[in-house]
Amino acid sequence: MHTKLLKNTIEQLFANGKGILAMDESTPTIDKRFSANGIPQTVEMRRKYRELIATTAGLNESIGGAILYDETIRQQTKKGEPIASVLMNAGIIPGIKVDMGAKALAGFPNEKITEGLDGLRERLVDYRNMGARFAKWRAVITIGDGIPTKTCIDANAHALARYAALCQEAGLVPIVEPEVLMDGNHSLQRCYEVTEHALKSLFETLYYFHVDLQGIILKPNMVLPGKECSDKNSIDEVAAATVKCFLSAVPAAVPAIAFLSGGQSPQQASQHLNAINKDYKDRLPWIVAFSFARAIQQPCLEAWKGKDVNVETAQKLLYHRAKLSAAARRGEYKSSMEE
What we know:
Blueprint (H helix, E strand, L loop, with lengths): L2 H11 L5 E5 L3 H10 L6 H12 L8 E6 L1 H4 L9 H7 L3 E5 L4 E3 L7 E3 L5 H10 L4 E8 L8 H21 L2 E8 L7 H21 L8 E2 L16 H15 L6 E4 L6 H15 L6 E6 L1 H11 L6 H20 L9
Parallel strand pairs: 1-2, 1-10, 2-3, 3-6, 6-7, 7-8, 8-9, 9-10
Antiparallel strand pairs: 4-5
């Protein structure tokens, strides 16, 4: 086991109030976002966008690590420097998404299982040689009529545990991400119940697979009502439900929780993270930080539009959004900072 190495990586990722930037969108996902902003969906445009992010001045003030996609960790800047090296030289630790995506769970309509375990041991060695020091695997849990089933929750926990054990064997910190989706009209209470079930199944399975909890990062959803739910809960209600759920289900041995934004607006994600840290920090045994993608990137992408003339403006927006996320991690975010 690489216990000391794993702990050291986690400490560096979250040092000085920082969090993690997720820039690991799969090719279909980022192409969809490019299309929505009138950006050509090509390898070169994806490379230029990832270079824009990696070369943003001062990003390391708020970001301790960045999750890359397989395509990105193999790409270089226009000057010929690997993007992973650009990040490392800026003091940002590169990580890597290693799952192969969520696929239909056979026999269970509308439920998914994340694939990618075959050959993972060898891929992790390759990624580590390219500079990665942590990895990410995302499980997807959907709330709907009669779902999620126990089978779906347990199968995804099993895959997450096998992945986490392989990461630790390779000396990489595993980010374990059991995401309960916001899609649907379910209530805050229903999200609470499913999230608690998913977390308890996950930690039981991690235990059985001899995963060292002190060498992982949990990347979960916050407890939120579905996007189509008619009841809109307050920021304080979301924070209270999230804290109660995690105190009941997440062992204190886990060093850090880095929340995903999961379809929240940048402002909502910052407000909720801020409330959790401002009102409950003294009660929480873990670092509570962020691993946002859209909630940091979206304003930047909308400003860039694939044009070189917009790079500087886009980078300023990315820098600003990252600063706001870090302020929320400290419990110091205010809506007036949005200006």
